[in-house]
Description:
The protein is mostly helical.
Amino acid sequence: MKLTAKARYAVMAVTDIAVNSNNAGVVSLSDISVRQNISLSFLEQLFGKLRKAGIVTSVRGAQGGYILARPLDEIRIGTVIHAVDETVKTKRCADHIGMGCTGKGAKCLSHDLWQAMEDHIEGFFSAISIQDVIDQRFPNVIAPHVGAANVVADSVPDMMEASS
Length: 164
């Protein structure tokens, strides 16, 4: 699965504005750069795209910077990721080219599995707002998987002791 730094940094920066806006709601890119440890020039590139997508608005002047263009609960993580021209990619094939996964026009045997996962991730990001990130509210869909992993991990030491 591939989710680039560009997508992660865009979400981090938009969330930073939501949390750190002053009375006027304005946050400078240099402040975001320092707090999030993201290159200022990289942020400038991202914010050009975020502005075009209507996620942020620029404010000029000595106290200038960026403000969020919409309420926090209306800005979806998926929208932020797509605004910076990123998508979640779980397959090696490019469906739009017609070469298929195998390079011979055919899908690989697990293609539909990876497509379903990609669709699930896209849906997950589309369901979560910046407000949800701040409030740490995420769908419970992931909880059973975490618990299942813990059961397996917790039973490994018991098996090790039993074989000693």
